[in-house]
Write the structure tokens for this entry.
Amino acid sequence: MLIQWYPGHMAKARRMLVENLKLIDVVVELVDARAPRATRNPDFDDLFSAKRRVILLNKSDLASPAATKAWVEHYRENGISAIDFFATNSAKRKAAVELIENAASEKVKRMREKGVAKVVRAMVVGIPNVGKSTFINRIAGASRAQVGDKPGVTKGKQWVKISPYLELMDTPGLLWPKLEDEYLARHLAFIGSIKDDIMDVERLAGALLAELAALCPDELSARYKLAQSGMSGEELLVAVSRSRSFLLSGGEADTERAARIVLDEYRAGKIARVTLDSVSEEKENGAAE
Ligand SMILES: Nc1nc2c(ncn2[C@@H]2O[C@H](COP(=O)(O)OP(=O)(O)O)[C@@H](O)[C@H]2O)c(=O)[nH]1
Ligand SMILES: [Mg+2]
């Protein structure tokens, strides 16, 4: 599976991010709760080592609640505060604001002792499609006001006031995923973070079906009415085509149509709330490289 990224764009995005880092107190990392390992750029650890960081496991509505809980605990064990999040819903807004404010509370306290009312500045970072823009809009809510340029702040940057003590940069820091590890690259493709048009959808859907057959066999059977034991991904895809009556004129399985449906349904959370990346793999292998 070969995926093209443009080194020029990457270098520019990274430069901008590093530039903006000087202005901020807290880095808010968004990862996709379905694939926290695949959607977390390992450069984060180097780039943000000097900053207070929090992690939001976004799209938790699509992930396994038990797995998300395990990831939250894993991050906490590694000294990073994390919560499960759901950017397309407002229920978690307050929890996110508190998480960010808490991350900067020591600094705020130190400044207050000096008689300065410190405004905490945060930046949202993450790879494409994890929900950065949705999060910024959600957290800004109706009060989305531009705070404007200030001394010491690079011209043109806009800050959104979240509370009297918290401002968020309205341009998220963009990083790219690491794609060297084929297994993790596949997870990025399953969740739709890599464009389908540069991949073989049938191979991709077959691989997804094989993984789902291992992770959530009952839900998979229920959705596609399959007796799946011992089937390969390719065989599973043919079985889905047949059970949905996706057939070509000669009666052959229309596996391309089935592949698109399987990918769409998985991404929309219709098959199961399932998490592809496990904490135990991360513990065994360390963070992705
Ligand atoms: N189900 C679900 N979808 C989400 C959530 N957050 C964002 N999305 C969707 O994910 C897609 C990418 O979101 P966007 O904010 O543009 O991501 P960005 O590229 O990181 O800025 C959009 O279709 C959003 O509606 C979430 O918590 N749950
Ligand atoms: Mg965006």
